[in-house]
Design brief:
367 residues, alpha/beta, Aspartate Aminotransferase, domain 1, Aspartate Aminotransferase, domain 2, eight-stranded mixed beta sheet, three-stranded antiparallel beta sheet, 12 helices, 37% helix, globular
């Protein structure tokens, strides 16, 4: 299996035209990330990088991560990015033939991981407030004797839509799991991390013993840090930690020290807040301008927009010819044979000329 994820390479040129503006990935704006100098200047000369037997998570980092988790976590570890965390948690919790619930659409690598392990994937649609309760209830109640072992949800900055669950929706969803599938594990993929300002919506507030919250620092502090916090229910986290002892055992403590430095640095904190504001402004501006031309897009956080089009293959081609790369919607759908006729547009690299981008999207939407 080659996997679903598809993008226009950033170096591609469209029919000899301008270089592609690559909006097909979720890559953050490099101008809004901390520099290498910021990362290393706060490191102490006595940082130990020689031990095999120290704690896998730095004590000072664990304190910081617990403070960022939206509920009181039973256990905490760090892994090499959110996809590493999802892969290891899926491997620990899911067996061949098990049922797993995901949002539809969702991030393509999640579907690839579940397909590789042989899971039965049930997609539940989302609306402006997150996963749709009635449809979730149907999925949970479909097989009462064999409930889903796992649900993978994105309560905020959902990828690809950019939507976030409301507080009311969180309560409804938590109640549905408690009533219809009390033993189902829930992974919350908080891939946007610190780019989301304010309280993070979390089912873990209501179900702390069944939720694992994955908080990535890639979008906010740098993709090459390759680090994500995994906080929440002890049983699945312990299973991941135990299995990892047969492999890398821990995420580099040197990188953990770098993250501690960044999280304690006032200048970095200000930069992350600025990045959150810049992305919010870009997203809001594009949504408002699209609405002016009759294209309604709902997105509340993160980098992504989920844009409806008449035909996504033609729309992708039309934008490529205009020098803009975007991702087609089909790989994000649980049933990829039925294209949702949407585009995912990631605004990390959309620094200027948003009007030109909107004009190109509007023209491509009717292609």
């Amino acid at each position: 299996m080659t996997g679903r994820f598809w993008r226009v390479p950033a170096t591609t040129q469209a029919n000899g035209g301008p270089p592609i503006l690559d909006l097909s990935t979720g890559t953050p704006d490099t101008n809004l990330l901390p520099t290498i100098a910021t990362m290393v200047r706060g490191l102490h000369a006595d940082v130990a990088i020689t031990s095999y037997i120290d704690r896998p998570v730095l004590e000072e980092l664990e304190v910081l991560l617990r403070a960022r988790t939206p509920f009181e976590a039973e256990a905490v570890t760090v892994l090499d990015g959110s996809l590493d965390a999802l892969d290891r948690l899926i491997s620990a919790l899911v067996r061949f033939g098990d049922t797993v619930i995901v949002e539809d659409p969702t991030f393509p690598p999640i579907l690839d991981m579940l397909e590789r392990i042989g899971a039965q994937v049930v997609g539940v649609p989302i609306d402006a407030e997150g996963i749709v309760p009635d449809r979730l209830a149907e999925a949970l109640d479909a097989s009462p004797n064999t409930p889903p072992v796992l649900a993978i949800l994105q309560p905020t900055a959902h990828n690809p839509t950019g939507r976030s669950m409301s507080a009311e929706r969180i309560d409804v969803v938590a109640s549905l799991f408690a009533d219809l599938a009390p033993d189902t594990w829930i992974i919350e993929d908080h891939h946007a991390g610190d780019l989301v300002a304010g309280p993070v919506p979390s089912i873990g507030v209501r179900r702390p013993d069944r939720v694992v919250h994955v908080h990535s620092f890639s979008k906010s502090h740098g993709p090459d840090l390759r680090i994500a916090a995994v906080c929440g229910a002890a049983e699945p986290i312990s299973a991941v930690v135990d299995r990892r002892r047969l492999g890398p055992s821990w995420t580099s403590r040197l990188i953990q020290h770098v993250l501690v430095t960044l999280l304690r640095d006032p200048a970095t904190d200000a930069l992350v807040r600025e990045a959150s504001t810049v992305y919010d402004d870009r997203r809001r501006a594009v949504c408002e301008q699209l609405a002016d031309v009759g294209i309604e897009v709902t997105s509340s956080a993160g980098l992504n927009l989920w844009v409806p089009v008449a035909n996504e293959q033609r729309a992708v081609l039309a934008l490529a010819l205009a020098g803009i790369g975007v991702a087609p919607g089909a790989p994000f759908a649980v049933d990829s044979s039925r294209p949702p006729n949407h585009l995912r547009v990631s605004l990390g690299n959309a620094r200027t000329d948003l009007g030109r981008l909107v004009d190109a999207i509007a023209e491509a939407a009717t292609a």
